[in-house]
Amino acid sequence: MARNRFNSGSKQDAELPKAKINKQSLQKISALLSYLQPYKWKFIIGFLFLLLSSLTGLLFPALVKVMVEVAQGNPSEYGLPGTVSGIGGIAFFILFIQAFVSFFRIRLFVEVSEKALADIRRDTYFKMITLPMGFFANRRVGELNSRLSADLSQIQDTLTTSIAEMIRQIIMLIGGVTFLIIISTKLTLFNLAILPIIVVAGVVFGKAIRNISRKAQDQLADSNTIVEETLQGISNVKAFVNEAYEANRYDKSLRQVVQIALKGATYRGGFASFIIFCLFGAIMGVMWYGSYLVEQGMLNVSDLLAYMLYSVFVGAAMGTFPEIYANVQKAVGASERVLEILEEKTENISIHPENNKIKEKIEGNLAFEHVEFSYPSRKEIIVLNDVSFEANAGEKVAIVGSSGAGKSTIAGLILKFYDIQKGKILFDGKSADDYALTDIRNQIAIVPQDVILFGGTILENIAYGKLDANKEEIIKAAQQANAHNFIMSFPEGYDTVVGERGVKLSGGQRQRIAIARALLKDPAILILDEATSSLDSESERLVQEALETLMKGRTSIIIAHRLSTIREADKIIVLDKGQIAEVGTHAQLIQKEEGIYKHLSSLQFEIQ
Ligand SMILES: Nc1ncnc2c1ncn2[C@@H]1O[C@H](COP(=O)(O)OP(=O)(O)OP(=O)(O)O)[C@@H](O)[C@H]1O
């Protein structure tokens, strides 16, 4: 059956994969930057504020230096006031400017990125829902969903935080190092000599810790899967008395989680003690060498103080780079995946309802002429081979055949979900290619095997067939579909919320809602994909009656699993491995001694 499986995608990747950053990937993602264009002024102002707050941040150690010098009775430098309070006042003034500017910087960046991201999200979603079915065949719903959520959130984080942080830290780094060199070249050189050791250790340890924590996350996810599976299939667990087996499986998995976590703890502990030693060692080293320089009269105390403060800035800047870089890498990967969707070719369907109105009426004559088809994802397998048949307006044509024969594929082709490779599909004698796609889909309705209802109310679910229908029309459709009575038996009637949190409707009830939906749509051609699971006889009668009402005056293509329901069909097409094997009425086909239809009928014990 060619239905789409709705994959929940519950096992989302704990971490988004990173991409290599090179010229090509950057060029590619710059396409996404065009989404910033409408908000460029806000972005530029935010950017200037960012520069301002970073640069003013760099002034503090210099101010502290002058303040200490003034406190020691020395004259002030850089034209600053000659009193401690004066300099303190200036420091607070700068602080105030910084706070003010930071507020607007964050506000502006968030506004720009939220709006730009909503634009990208909207475009990606619009694109996604107008992509041809072939696109969805190869992808899980969970994966596509995570592009809209996880990937775009990553891009957003990077736009709002990582880029700003990176710019700020680069300023801090360059500015800080410049001040360090100005204050004391000797001390800077000494500092630079010990730096590589810390950096290398940080990178090595950091990588090992990240690997282990990822493993721990995976392991934890695996053990969660055990819980999920067990609880979902609890009746199976109980029926097979496999409680002990499941308990053991979970226990084993948890032990592994702990083991990996402990290994991670060892690395983490080692890293922490190493960093404590190195970092404080480095600070001590600088203090020691700096004090030595002070003792030798080669450095002032105030310079040493400023030097220490700038070192902290530089160290902090360096510390944040690996994380920022990793974030940017993830964002590049995420952008590439989003762009992949944005660059796909869509179907000719507009997202504006006024463009999708019916332009050309279809009476209901349908014909397949020598149709050959294979799915885009499996081109080598020919699913339909030289299929020709006709259904005149108002006729009931049933398609039968064993599982995998290609029945649902025919339904998909009538709806033009895919393009055929050879032959023609004609509506009222005119090729399907010459109709607007919306004209075809607007005049065909399908009642699928598995009716999927949306999370809203019953009313909304029926109205899905005709969005501008009024309540009277909806109720009339529900009455004709034998659904009105059961709907009214719910306390909230048509406003009953279906779906996970609402009432669970039975299979037969869902089918009748789908029939009401189709009635409301009032199509020229109807496709009925008969439910394989049989309903109880009362429910079956109600559904059957509703279907009869629905089929009246329309061309109906019935994909039948139970032959008992199609005896009255004007034509029965027997499909075998993608080819038409027999055509005729029930009475004609049942006469063929060696016929497939007769064989299928006898399998269902229904020869009369
Ligand atoms: N999206 C798809 N991509 C690739 N192959 C597909 C796809 N959907 C169906 N097929 C293949 O096409 C063939 C016909 O499938 P189809 O679903 O049309 O059969 P069916 O007669 O409706 O079967 P059933 O009675 O079990 O619903 C099968 O071999 C199936 O594996």
Element pattern in H and E: HHHHHHHHHEEEHEEHEHHHHEHEEEHH
The ligands bound in this entry are: adenosine-5'-triphosphate
Distance between the termini: 29 Å
Mean pLDDT: 84
Got a strand count? 10
The multimeric state of the shown protein is: single chain
Instruction: Report the major sheet.
Output: 6 strands, mixed
| Net shape | elongated
At CATH level 3, the topology of one domain is ABC transporter transmembrane region fold
The spatial strand order of the largest sheet comes to 6-7-8-3-9-10
Uncertain runs? 1-14
CATH superfamily (homologous) name of one domain: ABC transporter type 1, transmembrane domain
Fraction in beta strands: 5-15%
Tell me what the CATH architecture of one domain is: Up-down Bundle
- The CATH class designation of one domain is Mainly Alpha
Gyration radius over CA = 35 Å
Short description:
The protein has helices spanning 23-33, 40-71, 84-129, 133-137, 141-183, 185-232, 234-239, 243-295, 301-342, 407-414, 437-442, 458-463, 471-480, 484-488, 507-521, 537-551, 586-589, 596-603; strands at 366-373, 384-391, 396-401, 422-427, 430-431, 444-447, 525-529, 555-559, 571-576, 579-584. By secondary structure, the protein is an alpha/beta fold. The structure holds adenosine-5'-triphosphate (ATP).
Textual characterization of the structure:
The protein has helices at residues 23-33, 40-71, 84-129, 133-137, 141-183, 185-232, 234-239, 243-295, 301-342, 407-414, 437-442, 458-463, 471-480, 484-488, 507-521, 537-551, 586-589, 596-603, and strands spanning 366-373, 384-391, 396-401, 422-427, 430-431, 444-447, 525-529, 555-559, 571-576, 579-584. It has 608 residues and is an alpha/beta fold. Among the domains are: 21-182 and 326-347, ABC transporter type 1, transmembrane domain (ABC transporter transmembrane region fold, Up-down Bundle), CATH 1.20.1560.10; 185-298. The strands form 2 sheets. It has a 6-stranded mixed β-sheet with strand order 6-7-8-3-9-10, sandwiched between helices. Helix 1 packs across helix 9. The longest helix is centred in the middle third of the chain and has 53 residues, at 243-295. Adenosine-5'-triphosphate binds next to helix 10. InterPro entries: AAA+_ATPase, ABC1_TM_dom, ABC1_TM_sf, ABC_transporter-like_ATP-bd, ABC_transporter-like_CS, P-loop_NTPase, Type_1_exporter.
